[in-house]
Amino acid sequence: MLFSSMTFVFMFLPIVCALYLLSSKRFHNPILLAASILFYAWGEPKYLAIMLLTIVINYFGAIVIEKVHLKKLALLSTVVLDLGFLIYFKYFNFIIDNINNLFHANINAIDVIMPIGISFYTFQAISYVIDVYRGDCKAQKDIYKLALFICLFPQLIAGPIVKYHDVADQIEDREVNFDKVTVGVKRFIIGLSKKMLIANTLGAIADKIFTQPADTFSPLVAWLGSISYTLQLYYDFSGYSDMAIGLGLIFGFQFMENFNYPYISKSITEFWRRWHISLSTWFKQYVYIPLGGNRISKNRTYINLGIVFLLTGIWHGASWNFVFWGIWNGFFIILEKMTGWHNDTDKLPVKILKHIYTIFVFVIGWVMFRADDMAYAWTYLKNMFGMVKVHDITYTMMYYVDNVEIVTLIIAILCAMPIFRNMIHIEKKPVKLLVNIWLLVLFILSSASIAASTYNPFIYFRF
C-alpha cells in the first residue's frame, strides 16, 4: 500500500488512527501490529511469510545470544540468516548474470522478485540482534513487540531505518497527545506534497530525458535531466521520510530525522551527514566502527571508509551502476579526509567554491544512480560536458519542460535550502494560522494530484 494513494490517505489511515486514538493504551501495540501486517500484505501478500520468518529468526536468535556462552557464533548465525534472505531475493539474479558473463557459463537464472522493504526491515532486524549482543538492550521476550519494531508500517517500506535501542522504550510505553498528533499530521502533509507536487512533476522531466538515447539531446537538456532527477530524488525520498516521521508522531513514536538539507553541503562528507542519515548512522555503528573506524591508522581509516561506501552502493541495488556510485562517493570521502577539505573553517568565497564542487559531485553521482546501466551513464555524462557527438536531436527543449515545470524547478531549488525550517512549530497565532491554511491548500492540491494519477511508487521502493 502506498502512502500516496487514495486507499491509504482516505481509508486505511483514518480507520487506523480512529481505532488507535480512541482505544486505551493497552490496545495500542496490537492495533499497530495488525495494521502493519495488513499494510504490508495489501501489496505483497506472498512475501509476508518472509518478513514473519525474519521476525521469528531474530526473536529466537536474540534470546540465544543473551543466554549462551558462544555469543559470537549465535550472532553470526542469526545475521547470516538475515543476510541470506536479502542476498537471495535482491542479488541472486545479479550474481548469476555476472557468473554467466565472467565464465561464459549458461546457468539458468530463477526469476526472483525482491519483496518490498526487505533492505530496510533486514537492517532493522540486524541492528536488534547486534544491540542485544553488545548489551545495549535486553532481548525482547514478547515476540509481538519485536514484530511491531520490525514491521511498524510508517517506516516499513523505505525507512528511516530505526535501530532497536532508539525505540525499545517507546515500544514498551509512549505518550500520545494532541500536540504530537498535530505536528505529525502537518509533517505528513508536507511529505505528501513533496512527493505529489514536486517529486512527481520533476520526475516527468527526468523520465522524458533519461528514456531517450543519451546522444540524442543537447548538453543543456542533459543538465536539465540530471538536475531534475537530483531534485526529484530528494523530494521523493525526503517526502517519504517526512510522512513516516509524521505518522510515527501520530502514534507516539519519535523517529530520527533522515534528511537535513543535504544539498546545501560544502563537502561530500557533510553531504552524507545530511543525506539518508539513518542509513549513514547504521553503517557507522554496525560496520565502520566495528572495522576499527579511525582508531587504528590513517590508511586503515581510508580502507574502512572505502568498504562502507562500497557496501552503501551495493545496498542500494543489484546493478553495477550502484557499485560505481558507491565507489564514486567513497573516493571523494577519502580524498576529503586526506586533504582536510571537509573542515568547515574557510571564508565565504572558499565556502562557495566548495559548495559548487559538492553540487557537481553529487549531481554526477545521481546520473549513475538513475541510469539503467553504466554504459548509458557514461554516454550521458560525456554529453553533459560536450564530449559526445550529438546527432538526430528529436525534440527541442520545450518538449521536455513547460512553464509549470519551470516554476516547480525554481520552487524545488528554493525549498532545498533551510528557508522555511521549523515552520510547523511556529506558535505565533497570525503566522500559525497562515501556515495551517497553507498546509490545508497543499493537502487539497496533493489529494487532487493523487486522484488524477494512477500509480505513484516512491523511488526507494526499488531498494
Features:
463 residues; mainly alpha; 18 helices; globular
Shape: globular
- Given the helix and strand composition, which structural class is it? mainly alpha
Query: Please, what is the average pLDDT?
Result: 90
What count of structural domains?
Answer: 2
Estimated helix fraction: 55-70%
Give the biggest beta sheet. Answer: none
Report low-confidence residues grouped into runs of 5 or more.
Answer: none
Radius of gyration: 23 Å
State the separation between the terminal residues, measured CA to CA.
16 Å
Number of beta strands? 0
- Determine the oligomeric state from the structure: single chain
Give a short synopsis of this structure:
With 463 residues, this protein is mainly α.
How would you summarize the topology of this molecule?
Elements: H1 6-22, H2 28-43, H3 48-67, H4 71-103, H5 118-134, H6 143-151, H7 164-172, H8 178-210, H9 219-250, H10 268-274, H11 277-288, H12 298-316, H13 320-339, H14 348-370, H15 374-384, H16 397-400, H17 403-415, H18 429-452
Helix pairs in contact: 1-2, 2-6, 3-4, 3-5, 3-6, 4-5, 8-9, 8-17, 8-18, 9-14, 9-15, 11-12, 12-13, 13-14, 14-15
Structure description:
This protein is about 70% helix and about 0% strand. The protein is mainly alpha-helical and about 475 residues long. The protein has helices at about 5-20, 30-45, 50-65, 70-105, 120-135, 145-150, 165-170, 180-210, 220-250, 270-275, 275-290, 300-315, 320-340, 350-370, 375-385, 395-400, 405-415, 430-450. Helix 8 runs antiparallel to helix 9 (about 220-250) and helix 8 crosses helix 17 (about 405-415). The chain starts with 5 loop residues before the first helix and ends in an 11-residue tail after the last helix.
